[in-house]
Every structure is written in C-alpha cells, then in structure tokens.
Design a protein that fits this description.
There is one protein chain. The chain is mostly helical and 437 residues long. The chain is globular, with a radius of gyration of 22 Å.
C-alpha cells in the first residue's frame, strides 16, 4: 500500500508543476494525507488536530498583519509621485559617476527597500522608471538595464522592513525587530557589491558619465524628496525606540504614504487608490494562501518526524557548523532555481531549524542567510520571478537578461559568503539594540 506521506508529496509536486498556487498545492496534498491517515487509523488518528493547528497558527500570528500593510504602503508609493522624487534625489547623489544611472538604480533600491519590504514592489515601481531613464537615448542596453534592476531589487527584503523576515519570524519564533536589525548591514553590503560590479562593467563597456546635477539644485531636490526619505526613519525609529511594534509600524507606513501622496504631493486620485487596494488585496491574499498551506503542511511533516530525521541524517555526516552552512547555502540556492522565496521560507526552513539549533547556529543569523538565499532565487534561472517581471517591462527575451545578470549574481554570492561566515557582521546591530545571541 502506498505511503500517505509519499503520495501527498507527489500530489503537491504535480499540482505545483501544473501551475496551481503552491499554497493550494500544499493544502491539497495535506488534505489527502489526512484523509488517508484517517482511513488507515480510524481510532488512532484525529484529523481535527491539523485544523486546530492551522487556526492557532493564524490566530497567534499577529505579526502577519504587517504583510498586507507593507504591501499597501509600497503600492501607494508606486502610484504616487514618491518614486519619481526619490529617483531625482538618487540621481543628484551618484549620477555623476561612471555608469551613473546604474549606481542610481542601486541607491534607489536601497532607499525604496526601507519603505516596501518587497523585491517585486521595488522592481515593478522604481524599476519601470529607472529602466526608462537608462535606456533613453541608447545609453544602456535594455537587457543590461533590466538585469541590474532585477539584481538590485533583491536588496528590498533584506534592509528593513522586510516581508520575508516576517515570514521567517513566524516559523522560527524569533523577534521581528532583531531580524530587521540583522538585515541592515547585509543589505548595504549587497548594494555595495552590486555598485562595484556596475562600475567595473561601466568602465569595460564605456558607459557614459551623466551630467552632474548643479550644486544649487541639490537643496531643492532634497527638499522635494525629504517627506519620502523620512518614512524609513519613522519606521525604524518607531520600532527600535519601542514606540511601535512591527505590525503597528506597517500600519503607520501605509497611512504616512497615503497622507503625503494625497495631501502633500496630490498625486493619488480616488480611482488610483481603489486600484491600489484591489491589487494589494490580491497580493496579500496569495501570500495568505501560501501561509495557510504551509501551516497545514508543517503539521504533516511534524507528524512524520521529518525535522528530527533530517537532523539525524545530517549528524551522520559529522559536519562542522561551517560545513553545514555551506551545504545549506548550496541547497537553498538550488531550491531557489525552482521555488518561490516565500515557499522556501515557509516549507523548507522549518524542517532545517532543529538541525540549526543542534549545530549551535544563531537563529537570527540563520534567518538572514535564508532570506538572502531566497532573494537570490528571484534572479536565478529557470524560475527567477524578477527576471520575468523586468522582461515584461523591457520586452527583452529572458535569455538575454540572464546573460547580463550573471555578474551581479557573482557579486551577490561574494556578499552571501561574508554574511554566512562572519556572523558578528550580521549580529553587530542587533546586539547594539540588546540582542543576547
């Protein structure tokens, strides 16, 4: 007789490969497992426990409310004029260097990441505008503009606020605030690595030096962008100052973005705001289905004792913590080629956490490693969600964009190596805020 767990895994894989949402695929496979186990063990198995676990997971997940609110804040900023003002500010800062618009792309992603927490929001919002600037008058090839935009968007979920960090906090029971803090320096390191790579490529290919913004224009450009630049300050200051929880900060971010877009910049109409609400609801709903599916499936893998079996399997190799982290990086990078980042965090990471704890690896440090790997998966073929997004924006074949994105993947892998093997670099800021790990 076929093992229920094996059959459920086959069903999940088949449904996901056929195009069904990963969340719905996990629900279907989990329901099949529960039905088969109930038929096989009518008196020794209670499927209602899975329902109870699902409801408790959602009910106790107060922090999850931050996700739709961060999505709403990012969507409001995209339909308003905040992105335009931020780009002009970035152009004034770094546009004068060789490959200037590439540097603008990097810096704008760093600033926008402090507002949205989403790589997709960064690529869709700021990405459309910066790609248009880079390709105007043939300064940069569309494929290169698309590649650097996809690569820099990966910084969005590393620098706080971060939707993937919220998901990791859900499965690891770690502080969202400390996870946000741990992502600060790694995110800046990733941006620096891509800035250096952009400069190297710009010198080799002879990319232009853009006209410098006159010094007399800097105060005006800064003043116009200042309200938008204050959003990350308000968010992080509120969280680390103990004034707001991450969920409350997400609500403040959405309200602040709406107020400055409507009242100050007057760039959001009622119709565009309604469209933003609908788009944000769809995005939040898809993430909600993924979370519900993962909670249900986590009950299945827990009942099958998969985490403990994996821990015993890894212990059999007698790996050091360093060797284990190398193996995990390889595993997560490979999974990122075929799985969406949220699915990796919600499905794979809970299985690994018992082994991570047994190895004595700090869970906040591991969380940053996991999220960086998941974001790298957004630009690695064949799945590479961000590659398809920028392909649609530029009408460039995905294959051409992949050829241009490889140097940035290499730069990000170097940054990942530092993040992985220098935990003090990752944990410096959280410890400054009182983290004891």
């Amino acid at each position: 007789m076929i093992d229920p767990f094996t059959l459920s895994m086959v069903l999940i894989a088949a449904l996901a490969l056929s195009g069904l949402s990963v969340g719905l695929a996990m629900m279907s496979g989990s329901f099949l497992y529960l039905i088969m186990m109930d038929m096989r063990m009518p008196r020794g198995f209670d499927p209602s426990i899975a329902t109870e676990q699902l409801l408790q997971g959602l009910y106790n997940g107060y922090t999850l409310l931050a996700i739709p609110l961060f999505i709403l804040a990012a969507d409001i900023m995209n339909v308003g004029s905040l992105a335009d003002r931020l780009l002009r500010f970035c152009q004034a800062l770094v546009g004068r260097f060789r490959g200037g618009l590439g540097h603008v792309n990097v810096v704008s992603s760093v600033i926008f990441s402090g507002m949205s927490g989403s790589a997709v929001a960064d690529a869709v919002g700021m990405g459309k505008i910066i790609i248009g600037l880079m390709t105007r008058d043939g300064k940069y090839t569309p494929a290169y503009a698309a590649a650097i935009t996809a690569a820099t968007a990966t910084v969005g979920p590393i620098i706080p606020p971060s939707i993937p960090m919220v998901l990791y906090a859900l499965v690891s029971d770690q502080s969202v605030g400390y996870l946000f803090a741990a992502g600060m320096l790694p995110g800046l390191l990733m941006a620096l690595s891509m800035g250096i790579m952009n400069y190297i490529i710009a010198v080799r290919r002879g990319f232009p030096v853009d006209e410098a913004v006159p010094a007399r224009e800097l105060p005006r450009v800064t003043r116009e962008a200042f309200p938008a630049l204050m959003l990350p300050v308000i968010l992080l200051g509120g969280i680390y100052g103990g004034i707001m929880t991450p969920t409350e900060a997400a609500a403040v971010a959405a309200a602040y973005a709406l107020i400055i877009s409507v009242v100050l910049y007057r760039s959001v109409s009622l119709a565009s705001f309604w469209g933003t609400l609908k788009a944000g609801s769809k995005s939040a709903g898809s993430i909600g289905i993924l979370i519900a599916g993962s909670i249900t499936f986590n009950y299945v893998i827990t009942r099958e004792n998969v985490p403990n079996d994996l821990a015993a399997f890894m212990n059999g190799f007698d790996l050091s913590p360093t060797g284990f982290l190398i193996a995990i990086n390889v595993l997560l990078l490979l999974l990122g080629c075929v799985l969406e980042g949220g699915a990796i965090i919600l499905i794979v990471i809970p299985i690994l956490i018992p082994t991570v704890q047994a190895m004595g690896i700090d869970l906040v440090h591991f969380g940053v490693i996991a999220v960086v790997n998941a974001m790298l998966g957004l630009i690695t073929p064949p799945y590479g969600l961000l590659l398809f997004i920028v392909s649609n924006v530029t009408n460039q074949p995905v294959g051409r964009i992949i050829r241009e994105v490889w140097p940035f993947i290499i730069a990000l892998l170097v940054a990942l190596g530092i993040i992985t093997f220098v935990p003090d670099f990752v944990l410096w800021f959280p410890r400054l805020l009182g983290y004891q790990g």
